[in-house]
Write a structure and sequence with these properties.
2 domains; about 25% helix; Immunoglobulin-like; binds copper (II) ion; alpha+beta
């Protein structure tokens, strides 16, 4: 009686193990928290001919983001956001000259051929204008957070 029951059970366990080993990797990757496994979103804004390009970029609230400004002009430019980084933990890199005030990040001056790099996670959706405050520069653009 027992000799008859064991082989089917062993076969069932073997089949179960085989099916689980095939299923588990896919199940494991899809059940991890998305915010921890989502790749960082990379956004590049180039500055040339006194223009931010593209004029509008869309970022996503709750997502790890790297935002880079690349100054391709032969003159200095600045990135001056309005409200975007208020209360946001910010990591600033690149070879620009960032300035901070009592409300946090104020602006970064980016040399010719240089770049400013920001890493952050934004939480407040909205449309945030930014500009370059170098004298005579009429440069405006928008960052939309969805
Ligand atoms: Cu400028």
């Amino acid at each position: 009686m027992q000799r008859l029951r064991v082989p089917p059970l062993a076969g069932f366990v073997t089949a179960l193990v085989l099916s689980l080993s095939g299923v588990l990797p896919a199940a494991a990757t899809s059940t991890l928290a998305p915010s921890n496994t989502d790749p960082e979103e990379h956004i590049l804004v180039t500055i040339h001919s006194r223009t931010f390009e593209p004029a509008t970029v869309t970022l996503h609230a709750g997502r790890k983001t790297q935002l880079v400004f690349e100054n391709q002009d032969a003159e200095l430019h600045a990135f001056v956001p309005v409200g975007l980084f208020t209360g946001v933990h910010l990591n600033v890199g690149g070879n620009g000259a960032p300035e901070f005030g009592e409300n946090g990040f104020k602006r970064v001056i980016i040399p010719s051929g240089g770049r400013a790099e920001f890493r952050f996670v934004l939480e407040r959706p909205g449309a945030y204008p930014y500009f370059c405050d170098m004298p005579g520069h009429e440069m405006r653009a928008v960052i939309v957070v969805e």
